[in-house]
Amino acid sequence: YECIQGSVAWFGLTLIPIFINRIERGATAGSFGSQEQEEGRVITSIEEARTDVQGGGLGTALESAMKLSEFDGRTIVTWKEGKSSYHIEGDLVLNLTIKLPRILPLPPGFNAIGSKIFERICRERLKQNLIDTKAAYIEWAGTPTT
Fold first, then answer.
1. I need a surface site. Which of 9, 41, 42, 141 has the fewest CB within 10 A?
2. CA angle 109, 113, 117 (to 5 degrees)
3. Average pLDDT estimate for 64-77
4. For residue range 90-124, what is the model confidence (pLDDT) as tens digits?
5. What DSSP state is assigned to residue 83?
6. Distance between CA 120 and CA 123 in Å, rounded?
7. What are phi and psi of 135, to 5 degrees?
8. CA angle 5, 9, 12 (to 5 degrees)
9. Residue ranges of E strands in 11-110
């Protein structure tokens, strides 16, 4: 699936990551004869990625480097049904590799600042994702069954 991510403002550029994701769904049951409830799992993996770049605050060298950036990552969501509730857990891994040319003059701390920007954005988006998941579950749980 092609998934266009939200844009990111980064050092005068607007970056739009586009991921090609693979989604795998599988359920595993507790060991034979155990009293454990069934557990489910969904894994979303980045198979390919590209970055559309708009703007040009630091010049074409940085813009070119960002177009060649590489993303690697996955999200694993698991759930386990109890007697009267579900337990949901998530594990998110996202790595961004930017191969910057040696000729590009960068200010001291550029790596640390850029990493903090991406970390903050990822945390904000993950928090919003959890809020949306909670709201969807509450809506689903309140839906009358027939």
1. 141
2. 170
3. 81
4. 888 888 887 777 776 777 777 777 778 878 888 88
5. S
6. 5
7. -60, -40
8. 140
9. 13-28, 39-55, 70-81, 86-97
98 and 113 Cβ atoms separated by less than 8 Å: no
Of residues 62, 69, 77, the one with CA closest to residue 24: 77
Task: Write the CA distances from 41 to 94, 107, 116, 129, integer angstroms.
Answer: 19, 44, 30, 17
Nearest residue to 69 (alpha-carbon basis) of 93, 45, 55, 52: 52
What pLDDT was estimated at residue 35?
Answer: 44
pTM: 0.63
pLDDT digits (tens, 9 = 90+) for 9-27: 877 778 888 899 999 887 4
Contact, 93 vs 73, CB < 8 A?
yes
